[in-house]
Design brief:
cell outer membrane; mainly alpha; signal; SusD-like_N; 18 helices; membrane; two-stranded antiparallel ribbon; RagB/SusD family nutrient uptake outer membrane protein; 12 strands
């Protein structure tokens, strides 16, 4: 059975178990055969597989559930959720994220903690079940199969713990849930670092490789995936613990690229890592399988579907999810009079424009037969309406034609190039024309058989190249860094493009390195982490954002709702 099919059956089974429990017999003299416990749940190999897969489903949801995507992107210099004529003001909560003025009473500070610990709890429960199996042959399994399952779930839990460490630093390490009534104590970041490192190193040798799994590799934690998590841990180690591990990071990166943990390869097209063929792509180091009929969390409203402009679905010809309501857009690079802002950070679209022959700069367009070009929704978006007439995407406030621009303001029905009287451009003064939208995962038409079929590429081989490049740059090897970056960047420009870095790496600076991370991994839920690692998250200036008073906002507060039920937890410093 394919993993995404099992995900769907698990969801149904969970509901069924709740209904069974609710309707159980009330005769206390009777044996309660409808009660499922850890002692009688695992009867067949299929039961073991279901138990094994349950935490994966929740973890896929957690890429955007619990506001995790929003907190990574809206707090950075990349995305914004402005007040669009009354839409998305929501008590100013997104403006507090933008300005780093969140408080423990903002629900998302609890939501992210709960979402990630929900996955850890499920994973730990599964681990306790699997580790309790004394005779795997009873389930028609070998010890090696069982050990592999245990190692995958430990790796999944390490991924969740790593994200918690990144968000909160002072976290609780959960290794037992059965029979427990409250969480354990928080541990120092170094202890959490050590735990995650140990889990990954011990799990890695017993994991499968991408090649051993073949076409079924997507959704499975492999040796390459576990090694890539070590790369993330080591790359950010100085932020987490005060001690850098760039040399360790470089070693693991080189081992991955050299094929020590399985064979991987970069795609030759920029869009291929995100297309419907990505489950079998050599660039996908770890991904969650997606499909239109089953699970596809990156395409849902908590993530990329809320990154589409109003009515943009008509332009795609994709009408299965209704019309969009844009929560996210790129922060602007220009003011209302089209003058570029002078701050170094932010301006994500203009960072692409620095290299004008970048093929990603084309306006996104579906070409038919499950193909597309371009990455940005910009300008007018024409389409043929239901009456068979040529139309263009229109505002829900007008209904005037929308012209999407790299600016924020009250443009309303103003034609492009028209000077408007209201010069205000901030988080509280945006209309539906404001801000451009990137489209990394395609929205093919409703009639396309491959619509909404991409896997979510959580880890791409490109990340390993960029991580190694950063390690080389920090070690003074700019030439080595340039070669690695250009190996990936070459697919974004025509053959012989002057946009590739000079072989000596002389164009590379701290700012250019950070800008290039932003270009390659735009809206891939890592921008906050990268800004913190480069030391500008709290000190930097970008659109409608001044530097923070201090650096305590580099980590989030533990939400008050969490503290209310777990009084043994201590709030993070500064909150």
């Amino acid at each position: 059975m394919k993993r995404n099919q099992i995900f769907n059956s698990i969801r149904s089974a969970s509901v069924s178990l709740l209904l069974i429990a609710a309707g159980g017999c009330t005769n206390l003299d009777e044996v309660l055969s409808d009660r499922i416990t850890s002692g009688n749940f695992l009867q067949t190999k299929e039961d073991v597989i279901r138990d094994f897969l349950r935490p994966f489903e929740h973890s896929y949801w957690s890429i955007q559930g619990g506001s995790t995507f929003m907190l990574q992107e809206d707090s950075s210099d990349e995305l914004m959720t402005p007040n669009r004529q009354g839409d998305w003001f929501d008590g100013g909560q997104y403006q507090r994220v933008h300005n780093h003025t969140w408080t423990p009473n903002d629900n998302y500070t609890s939501d992210a903690w709960n979402a990630l610990y929900g996955g850890i709890t499920l994973a730990t429960n599964t681990l306790e079940d699997l580790q309790a199996i004394q005779d795997p042959s009873r389930y028609s399994m070998t010890q090696a199969e069982l050990d592999g399952m245990i190692s995958e779930v430990r790796t999944l839990r390490a991924w969740l713990n790593l994200r918690l460490l990144d968000f909160y630093r002072n976290i609780v390490i959960v290794t037992k849930v059965k029979g427990e009534t409250q969480s354990g104590p928080q541990v120092p970041p170094q202890d959490a670092f050590n735990f995650i490192e140990k889990e990954l190193k011990e799990s890695l040798p017993k994991l499968p490789t991408r090649q051993s799994l073949g076409a079924n590799a997507v959704g499975r934690w492999t040796q390459g995936g576990a090694a890539a998590l070590l790369v993330r841990l080591y790359l950010n180690a100085k932020v987490y613990t005060g001690t850098d591990h760039f040399a360790d990071c470089a070693t693991v990166c080189q081992d991955i690229i050299s094929g020590k943990y399985g064979q991987y390869a970069l795609e030759t097209r920029w869009d291929a890592p995100f297309d419907y063929t990505n489950p079998t792509s050599g660039e996908t180091v770890f991904g969650f399988p997606g499909s239109f009929g089953l699970t596809h969390w990156q395409y849902d409203s908590g993530m990329y579907f809320w990154m589409l402009p109003n009515n943009a679905t008509f332009y795609f010809g994709f009408t299965d999810f209704g019309t969009a309501n844009p929560k996210y857009a790129l922060q602007p690079g220009r003011d209302v009079d089209s003058t570029e802002y002078n701050f170094a950070l932010g301006k994500p679209y203009l960072k692409f424009r620095k290299y004008p022959d970048d093929v990603r700069l084309k306006t996104y367009k579906n070409l038919g037969n499950s193909k597309r070009e371009g990455m940005f929704l910009q300008g007018y978006l024409p389409y043929t309406n239901s009456a068979g007439k040529l139309d263009t995407v229109r505002s829900t406030k007008g209904p005037y034609a929308l012209f999407f621009r790299d600016q924020v303001g009250m443009f309303l029905a103003a034609k492009p190039g028209t000077k408007i009287a209201d010069k205000t451009s901030n988080m509280n003064n945006a209309d539906q024309n404001s801000g451009l939208t990137p489209v990394k995962y395609p929205y093919y038409p409703s009639s396309d058989p491959n619509k909404i079929s991409s896997a979510y590429a959580e880890i791409r081989l490109a990340e390993i190249y960029y991580s190694l490049a950063e390690c080389k740059y920090r070690a003074g090897d700019k030439a080595g860094a340039a070669v690695l970056l250009n190996t990936v960047r070459a697919r974004n420009y025509p053959t012989g493009s002057p946009s590739l870095y000079k072989p000596d790496g002389s164009q590379l600076t701290d700012q250019e390195m950070l800008d290039e991370w932003g270009r390659e991994f735009l809206v891939e839920s890592r921008r906050r982490t990268d800004l913190i690692r480069w030391g500008v998250f709290n000190t930097g200036t970008w659109w409608d954002k001044q530097p923070d008073a201090d650096n305590h906002t580099a980590i989030f507060p533990i939400g008050q709702n969490v503290l209310n039920v777990s009084p043994q937890l201590k709030q993070n410093p500064g909150y």
